[in-house]
Amino acid sequence: MPGWDASAYLANAHGWLSNLYLIENFRAPLISWIIAGIWTITGENWETVKFMPALFVLGSGLILYFALKRHKGALFAFAVTALTMLNTQVIGDSTQIQTEPLSLFFVALTLFFIKSDKATHWFLAGVTIGLTFASRYPIVIQSFIIVLVEFLFIRKNFTLASQAIVGLLLVLGITATAVYLKTGTFQTALEKDTHLSIIPSPYYIENSINIWGFAFLLVPVALVFRRTYTDSYNYTFLSWFAVGLLFWSADTSVISDVDRFRYVIQFMPAVYFLAILGVENIIHYLKEIHLVKTARTQL
Q1: CB-side exposure of 117: number of CA atoms within 13 Å?
Q2: Which of 80, 85, 123, 232 is most buried, judging by how many CB atoms fall within 10 Å of its CB?
Q3: Residue range 244-297, pLDDT digits in tens
Q4: Domain coverage including residue 177
Q5: Which helix (H) or strand (E) holds 160?
Q6: Residue 257 DSSP one-character state
């Protein structure tokens, strides 16, 4: 049976479909819109949408793989994607009617579009930032930072950035207007869930192995190698990881460990990217040592 959050999204979908009030109007609307759309075809039954989150998770994996393969190669892309998809939290959330799989999908899609010089792709990246917002309000920060870093440090093209802004404003306008017309207000969270501290909590570092597994130990390895910072492609993932970790570490709302764990799945690809980058850096370092030793023996 659906849990409380899932029940709220299902009830909101009924409200949108039947032109009734929303039981919890602070919830991001996109998942309820998708459910309502499916119900127009199948009729209102929660079992017809229970596999929807799994489809978004699978889609996220495919998008992530092809986004990374362009620059890092098939093996690197497969390793990052496999670690992300096999994470127990990701697997668990894929079985629940939650916004985490949906927002993960749109963050990954944002990454896919901005790794391109095409203006249409950047417009679509702006659209996917907006859809990230509509799927889970606070996660928009992660999609936005991905695009911002790509623009500032890699593309440096104002035409591309303007296309992204147009796409973003379009979706934000539609989302905010639809919710306001439906509810008479636009609320993104309950007051008790909006407490942030300027001093980050060590919670996620202390529980890093439980959340990301022993692969997390390779993240510091990536961070200490100079090679990580000489390739501008990595800046997107460094920023994505830092912003995601700092934001949720600053959250002082009273929530359970289960909630804290599921809040971080959207930047799991960034964590595992840095972990595999750490492995790649070690291999590159060992090869350099071998080449130096070989050159010395030849002298």
Answers
A1: 3
A2: 80
A3: 999 999 887 756 566 788 889 999 999 999 999 999 999 999 888 766 666 666
A4: 51-185+196-298
A5: helix 158-183
A6: H
Which single residue is written with the structure tokens 């299902």? Answer: 10
Q: How many domains does the chain have?
A: 1
Q: What is the spatial distance between Cα 65 and Cα 70, in angstroms, rounded to a whole number?
A: 9
Q: For residue 172, give the amino acid letter.
A: L
CA distance 237 to 276: 12
Q: Is residue 42 part of a domain?
A: no
User: Are 163 and 126 a contacting pair, CB within 8 Å?
Assistant: yes
Q: Which tokens sit at 88?
A: 């127990």
Q: Is residue 157 part of a domain?
A: yes
Q: For residue 253, give both structure tokens.
A: 């709302």
- Token pair belonging to 82: 């496999």
For residue 30, being part of any structural domain is answered with no
Cα(131)–Cα(268) distance, integer angstroms: 19
Q: 197-234 burial, b if ≥16 CB within 10 A, otherwise e?
A: eeebeeebeeebeebbbebbebbebbeebeebeeeeeb
Q: Which two tokens stand for residue 76?
A: 């690197």
pLDDT, tens digit, 9 for 90 and up, residues 41-97: 999 999 999 999 999 999 999 999 999 999 999 999 999 999 999 999 999 999 999
Task: Give a yes or no: residue 235 inside a domain.
Answer: yes
36: tokens are 């309502």
Which two structure tokens, joined as six digits, stand for 95? 């079985």
Q: Which residues contact 185 (CB under 8 A, 6 or more apart)?
A: 25
d(CA 248, CA 253): 10
For residue 176, give both structure tokens: 């905010």
Tokens 């929530």 -> residue: 255
Whether 269 contacts 80, CB under 8 Å: yes
